[in-house]
Design a protein that fits this description.
The chain is of the alpha+beta class and about 130 residues long. The protein has a domain at about 5-90: Ribosomal protein S16 (S16 Ribosomal Protein, Chain: A). About 50% of the residues lie in helices and about 25% in strands. It has helices at about 55-60, 70-75, 80-85, 90-130, and strands at about 5-10, 15-25, 35-40, 50, 65. α1 packs across α3 (about 80-85) and α3 runs antiparallel to α4 (about 90-130). It is flat. The relative contact order is 0.12. The mean pLDDT is about 90.
């Protein structure tokens, strides 16, 4: 049995809400799943990504293969970094240190992105405003 970590869709029309689940690869998208690892709400502002790291790491170590989207979500939360370091037999202290450093860098990257977005919006509104 090939086990995958992937998204299953719930929510209303045009208001998607995804569960990050572990399921047999042969099952349909919204079929029965083995375990729920987290949630993902892309339409919520800011988007919500909640992942139970211990469960995700446990399933990854058992050989579950994440889909491309789930792999991206796990990477954005630092789970893939932790898993990679566990595979390479790093000590738990070194793993925690590296993940903490990565999270600090991720916060600064996100702040930079937000600043770029706001300046872009301001420039766009200035262009759209009629000159009188």
């Amino acid at each position: 049995m090939s086990v995958k970590i992937r998204l299953t869709r719930t929510g209303r029309k045009k208001q998607p809400y995804y569960r990050i689940v572990v399921m047999d690869s042969r099952d349909r998208r919204d079929g029965a799943y083995v375990d729920q690892v987290g949630i993902y709400q892309p339409k919520h502002q800011p988007e919500v990504i909640h992942i139970e790291e211990e469960k995700a790491l446990q399933w990854l170590s058992r050989g579950a293969i994440p889909s491309d989207t789930v792999k991206t979500l796990l990477s954005r939360r630092g789970v893939m970094l932790r898993f990679d370091m566990m595979k390479r037999n790093y000590t738990p202290d070194k793993i925690e240190e590296a993940v903490a450093k990565w999270r600090e860098e991720a916060k600064s990257r996100e702040a930079e992105r937000a600043a770029r977005r706001t300046t872009k919006r301001k420039a766009k509104t200035a262009e759209a405003a009629p000159s009188a």
